[in-house]
Specification:
Enzyme class: transferase
Helix content: 25-40%
Family: Belongs to the purine/pyrimidine phosphoribosyltransferase family. PyrE subfamily.
Subunit structure: Homodimer.
Cofactor: Mg(2+)
Distance between the termini: 13 Å
Number of domains: 1
CATH architecture: 3-Layer(aba) Sandwich
GO molecular function: orotate phosphoribosyltransferase activity
Strand order of the largest sheet: 5-4-3-6-7-8
Number of helices: 7
Largest sheet: 6 strands, mixed
Number of strands: 8
Order of helices and strands: HEEHHEHEEEHEHEH
Length: 204
């Protein structure tokens, strides 16, 4: 299903609802409509899969981005001082969460972590505001399979002197990521499991 560019009626703008249960359900609808596909796919991990989730179809969707930000802010630890993620999948997530955090009277800066060091200037791996030493940072991810992307972000942040003990993902494919994070001493939480998506997709 493609995204309609027609101007929405105010009644169609569901992402502003104050009911987080309804918000979560509408976001799940959006993932099933725009991001979830069945077929034969090769994932970034090299594994073959009978389904694929293109998270950017939702993270770059106006209502999807707002819903994601509000739901993530609701589960972020109270002492979170920044959010971060590995480019490219996490870029729209950390950006939307940071912007919406201001409207929630809880401004949280965002960091974007490069896969390779910047080739000029500061040669940095991490882009964004300079934080105080040992600042508490939560790693955000769109879809977790093996967990390697968020783990790389965690390692870069640790090397920069930040404190990281939690990863939050939009979707957990339940293929080893949670176990990897646990072995690294990281708490892990996802908005949805792959079972949530597939059950809802079949019902639709």
């Amino acid at each position: 299903m493609s995204y309609s560019t027609e101007t929405s009626n105010p009644s169609d703008i569901w992402a502003t609802t104050t009911d987080l249960t309804t918000l979560r359900q509408k976001l799940l609808d959006l993932f099933c409509q725009l991001a979830y596909q069945e077929g034969d796919f090769v994932l970034s991990s090299g594994q073959r899969s009978s389904y694929y989730i293109n998270g950017k179809q939702v993270t770059l969707h106006p209502q999807g981005a707002l819903a994601i930000a509000r739901l993530i802010l609701n589960i972020l630890p109270a002492d979170t001082q920044a959010i971060a993620g590995l480019t490219l999948g996490a870029d729209p997530i950390v950006s939307s969460v940071s912007v919406v955090s201001v409207y929630e009277n809880r401004p949280i800066p965002a960091l974007i972590i490069r896969k390779e060091a910047k080739g000029h200037g500061t040669m940095a791996y991490i882009e964004g505001p300079n934080l105080s030493p040992s600042a508490k940072v939560v790693v955000l991810e769109d879809v977790v399979t093996t967990g390697q992307s968020a783990l790389k972000a965690f390692e870069r942040l640790q090397a920069a002197g930040y404190t990281v003990d939690k990863v939050i993902s939009l979707i957990d494919r339940q293929q080893g990521g949670a176990e990897l994070y646990k072995s690294a001493g990281l708490e892990f939480e996802a908005l949805f499991s792959i079972k949530d998506l597939q059950t809802h997709y079949q019902q639709k």
